[in-house]
Design a protein that fits this description.
The chain contains nine helices and seven strands. It is an alpha/beta fold. It has a domain of about 180 residues: 3-Layer(aba) Sandwich (Rossmann fold). Helix 1 runs antiparallel to helix 8, helix 2 crosses helix 3 and helix 8 packs antiparallel against helix 9. The structure holds S-adenosylmethionine (SAM). S-adenosylmethionine binds next to helix 3 and strand 2. One of its GO terms (molecular function) is methyltransferase activity. It holds the Pfam family Methyltransf_25. Keywords: Methyltransferase, Transferase.
Length: about 280
Amino acid sequence: MASEHAPHHHPGHGHGHDGDHDMTEMLDLDAEVASAEIDALTARIAELATTVVRDIIDVGSGTGTGSFALLRRFPEATVTAVDTSEDLQRHLAAAAGRHGLAGRIRPVRADLDAGWPGLGPADLVWASSSMHHMTDPDRVLRDVRAALRPGGLLVLVEMERMPNFLPAGFGDGLEDRLHAAHAEARAEHLPHIGSDWTARLKAAGFTVHDQHVLTVERVAPLPHEAVRYAEATLRRFRHSLADRLSAGDQATLDGLLHGGLAGRDDLTVISNRDVWIAGA
Ligand SMILES: C[S@@+](CC[C@H](N)C(=O)[O-])C[C@H]1O[C@@H](n2cnc3c(N)ncnc32)[C@H](O)[C@@H]1O
């Protein structure tokens, strides 16, 4: 779940193979690296569920991180995976086939900005790093609530900042500048990022049952997939933030990426995402 689109990316409209490929890879590697924490979250959802979870909607499903984790947790469930991106839906459908889950995932291509595509009723709606992409998240939250059965749950996950990978002080604070540039670019394109989701949930009629921070922390030396996650994320920064970085920072980043991160034993992963579990 939960890494972030480049600010200039419009879902469904690729802008060069590098960016789209990096994003898909980054989402999949994020799922791999954070799988234990995501499984702990689905266990918490199972504790809070008061009804049998059969029908799940994954809002902005991406490569299917949430869909697959929820299918693992809820053996009787099927997932409707909604996304506007054809590429990501194809990727998700192929992964579902590989895992023998094609019969339990229904990909639906829809732009939720255009309205709710008549989905439901559902026992559980999962929206991870997708709600801030919506033009009018309040309307989508109301539609989600209307789609939930009595006793149904919405799980909202939002990542406010990108993960940290580099040792403190590396490149004279390079990662801090990357995050600042990313946040600045994102704020221009995604005005709802970092908004008061608790208030928005309540305004849409939800009751928040649980709110916590999900932390993913891996110490050095990182396993292979976590190094690849760091590399995909930093490469994505290199492409999407080029016009916001100094020549010096670009050169340092190029050195890191071309030198290969695989040989480094000083990388870490630290990321936080906010989680709300709310009742309809
Ligand atoms: C940062 S990704 C998160 C993907 C996945 N939920 C995860 O946690 O890995 C955001 C997803 O929301 C989708 N999305 C953005 N705007 C959308 C819209 N208006 N309607 C449907 N999906 C949308 C994007 O295509 C993308 O797959």
